[in-house]
Amino acid sequence: MTDTDSSQPRKQRKSAVEAPLHQSNNEVHSTLSDELREEYGTRRVRVSEGDTVEIMRGDFSGHEAPVVGVDLDSERVIIEEAVVEKTDGEEVPRPIEPSNLRITELNLSDERRRERLREKGGEA
After folding, report:
1. 98-118 mean pLDDT
2. Domains, the chain, ranges and CATH?
3. HEC string of the chain?
4. pTM of the complete model
């Protein structure tokens, strides 16, 4: 959650909504698959564009597809196959909460991300 000393739900929600992007970044983490967990020595990692994820909950559960984008403002992940049809027939992506996802394949094209994973104890 975000930095607030209050136990009042309204203040916690307000703090989460008004959180700066560097704090919202921590809210878009998903768990890793068992193989990746063993390999990198960490339980969760931030979801990035290009990762392949498995949807664990909701209408699209069981689907596995690449991540198209990450929206830090709403703390949601856009996945290629998770689309809904509007009444006019247009298909639009359905944003999914990162806690409902499991990362099955990491996009390691970013050198900084590779270094962070290596620091946590894995071989990237």
Report:
1. 93
2. 9-112 (2.30.30.30)
3. CCCCCCCCHHHHHHHHHCCCHHHHHHHCEEEECHHHHHHHCCCEEECCCCCEEEECCCCCCCCEEEEEEEECCCCEEEECCCEEECCCCCEEECCECHHHEEEEECCCCCHHHHHHHHHCCCCC
4. 0.84
